[in-house]
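step: validate -> pass
step: tokenize input -> pass
step: predict -> running
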Amino acid sequence: MPKDKISKEIEAKFGNHLRSRVNGILIEDGKILMIKHLMGNGKIMWSVPGGGMHFGHNASENLKREFSEETGLDIEVKDYLFVHEYLATPLHAMEHFFSVEKIGGNLTVGTDPELYPDSQIIEEVTWMSINEIRSLPNEALHQIFWGIKSLEDLVLLRGYFNFENNSLK
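step: predict -> pass
step: emit ->
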């Protein structure tokens, strides 16, 4: 299948090297904040806010920046939860997940400053219940959501996970 413009941009900016990422799990009123990402070639992925770390900034600083860029929200970083190794060639990332708390801002669909304006991949930012998440096919969900039975399952995870790395195949 030929690659479309978005998938070429994703590969150019994020592919073929190991990235270190931070991600925030924000749960309020029984719902989790989720972002719908365009992955190119008609594929989507729902996941929590997060992104690549900038050199010289610690994980907390990077996660606060990512939340602001992607959602318009200000957060406080709470507990370190787990690490997930995402490997779906050409993408490879060590993703660190933290619980976070909202302290300000207004929810909006943000942007990814690493991508060109006509290649943005954030399509939607919304609060989702566990039932809404479980109604989505696995291929449209980040692997951390596969098989969870409650949102609380996410904040109880500890350790290293890779979940077979077959979400985009």
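step: describe -> The helical segments are 5-14, 59-71, 130-134, 152-156.
step: cleanup -> pass
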